[in-house]
Amino acid sequence: MNNRLRWSYILAGPLLFSLFYFFIPTYVFGSKEANGAVGTVIWMALWWVTCPVDLAVTAFLPIAVNAIFQIADMNAVISNYSSETILLLLGASIMTVSWEVTGVDKRIASLILSCMGPNLRIQVSLWFLMSACLSSILPNAVVCASIIPIAVAMLRFAGEVDIAKSEKASLVLLTIVYGAGVGGLATPLGGAMNLVTVKYIEDITKEEFMYLDWVINFLPIMFFLVVSNIIYLIFQCKKTDTLRGTKDFYLNEYKKLNKATFEEKLVLILFAVATVLSFTRQFYASFLPGLKPAYVFIICAILSFLIVRKNGTRVLVWKVTQQKVVWELIYVFAGGLAVGCMINQSGAANAIGNYMSDLNSDNSFILVATILVFTILLSDITSNTATAAVAIPIVIAVTSGLGKDSIPYVYIAAIGVNLSYMLPTSIRAIPIGYGMLPSYMLKKGIPITVIMLVSLSLLSYISFM
Questions:
Q1: Which one of 33, 137, 376, 397 has the minimum C-beta count within 10 Å?
Q2: Which pLDDT score, from 0 to 100, does residue 362 have?
Q3: Is the pLDDT of residue 302 over 60?
Q4: Mean pLDDT of all residues in the chain?
Q5: Is residue 383 part of a domain?
Q6: Span between the terminal Cα atoms of the chain, in Å
Q7: Domain that holds residue 133
Q8: How many domains does the chain have?
Q9: Ramachandran region, residue 312 (left: φ > 0; alpha: ψ -120 to 50; beta: rest)
């Protein structure tokens, strides 16, 4: 990027923010603070996609903007930079540094490639299914934090070192994020956004909601989402696209490796313990309520620093580890959470929802499509849970006001709350931190968002109306 173009992007960000904050009438989003929150989203999206500054630098814009314009409570904004999810990502990143130091990454990568094979379409299908299955019962962030480092190790071993310049590597990481988003809809345990939805359903019906009912209701939607997303991802690569090498080549590479050392085994055990404990929290939450997945990963990361080789040297030393931790991943994720907080606290999200409610359409299909547009696009600029908290009450108010049964529309809103494809917020920040370009995510995300909006509007109308 030449310097003139870079500066044009740099200046365009604050100019767009100023346009929203100073010149858009306050009645559009309800207040000057709400205008500023929307302007901040536009500014960050522009800088993340065009990259005139480092991605992590853009992630700190919510703090800078909020300090000057006081759009939201500053404590609420900055708390996103030290949330539980941030600690989870930090712990996972530290532990994957120990993989690189001990050589575990090469061992795992060669084993995966020798089993899956290097064909990119097969890779895409299997990574998607793995991510979707795990996300059906686990928080999406936990799934992505656990699976993406493994995929990155595999890609680097296969020669895809620079993920930003590798279409193949970027597609694999995008696949995992898409799978986590789709899988989250399968059961109420797929994420906090689903539990928020369940709470509102129980408030409406005054009865306990059976989780099996959720699975049954969403079964046709889930089948469509899994098939359509995999087909979309498969068509992003050629039939002949492969990672470097053959299945036999990677099998031979795996066989060439020496017997796993003591420190390798310990590193693997710690990661396995962190993953299993995170995945099985429901079994010990009653007697260890504070041991959440984020803290499990941090504890295991601390233990990684205690591992010593036979020659007496430590596997991890902080001075070296801090240089290898993917800090950009952590800050981009935090920045997305922070700007989402500004959108919600300023009232911008409610204002957007009110525009939806003002439609007052008696046409059920138009109402279904509007709900999906509202929830899917809002999920792209804030967290899925925050979207559920904002969107579900609005959907209930609108449908009740129109004299309609709210429950089917709440189900439809739950679909949109779980899906988002375009911007590096929420779990979509994780592959960005490992090198994927936000412009690549936006480029691939726009077509599938349009496809999902059109197809899900039809399918949801058929399924729930």
A1: 397
A2: 65
A3: yes
A4: 86
A5: no
A6: 51
A7: 82-325
A8: 1
A9: left
Using pLDDT thresholds of 50, 70 and 90, give the confidence band for residue 324. confident
**CB count, 10 Å around CB of 228?**
17
Going by C-alpha positions, the residue among 274, 75, 324, 361 that lies closest to residue 373 is 361
User: Does residue 362 fall inside a structural domain?
Assistant: no
* Rounded Cα distance, 383 and 249, in Å: 42
The residue among 22, 70, 65 whose CA lies nearest residue 43 is: 65
**Residue listed under structure tokens 């006081």:** 70
pLDDT tens for 415-424 read 998 898 988 8
What is the rounded (10 degree) CA torsion for 83, 84, 89, 90?
Answer: 80
148: pLDDT strictly greater than 80: yes
* Measured distance CA(174)–CA(325) in Å, rounded: 21
Predicted confidence band of residue 361 (pLDDT cuts 50, 70, 90): low
The residue type found at 292 is K
| SS percent in the chain: helix, strand, coil, step 5 | 75, 0, 25
Nearest to 166 by CA among 262, 242, 66: 242
Residue 47, in any domain of the structure: no
pLDDT, position 308? 92
Torsion angle of the four alpha carbons 361, 362, 368, 372, in this order, in degrees rounded to the nearest 10: 20
